[in-house]
Amino acid sequence: MVLDMTIIDDLTAEQDRLEDVLAGLDEAQWTSPSGASGWTVADVVLHLAQGEEGVAASVAGAGVDVRPREGDTVEEAMDLLVRAQRTAPEEVFRRWREARKDAVEALRGADPKRPLTWVETPLKPATLATTRLAEHWAHGLDITEPLGIGFPDTERLRHVAWLAHRTLPYALAVTAEQAGPVSCELTAPDGTEVWRFGPADAESTISGTAGAFCRVAAQRLGAAESGLRTTGPYGAVALSVVRTYAV
Prior knowledge:
Blueprint: H1 7-23, H2 27-30, H3 41-59, H4 74-84, H5 89-109, H6 125-147, H7 157-166, H8 168-174, E1 182-187, E2 194-197, E3 204-209, H9 210-217, E4 229-231, H10 235-241
């Protein structure tokens, strides 16, 4: 599957959905624990705002410097950044709304063939937009599930599934796992369409619902609890390491 710049329209739609959710929260909900360990709902939105500000800065040529200090992981560096910039929920909401609009505008105007500096490795605008959609979707789960707010799967998960499959070689490499080609056959949220990624003749497969696959890749669901099925010599190991890495 080759993604084109219509991904930005879907990123905008995913952010619009999240904005509708956030606009309906009261202060107690904003300051309640999210599904992201140690973060409130406001912290999650602040993290998203920081990411969108990074997108706009990268397109502008300023680069993105969230490299961890010696001994810190990227996740620890992100946590430190959130803790350093915590503020009132209404200010966080305003900051995210402005940042996400600036980021989308920047991505629409970016040269689609020129890689942009990002956290781990340079990414072309369409791929960067895909990672931001995946990030907003996953953190949308972190916000809505603890609050009991509906957040149904949509066709936009196609992008998240593509990203997870596309980055399998990287996920395998960083975990020192050896594997050959793996294809995915995933049932779309509509229950009828099947999304296929990878070579048709791959001897190893992952199959099941796209929602489960994306949740495993986003580390919001354990592989053993996902109901996903694997075949061949590499299917299980691929499922054990799949992530929505931005490469």
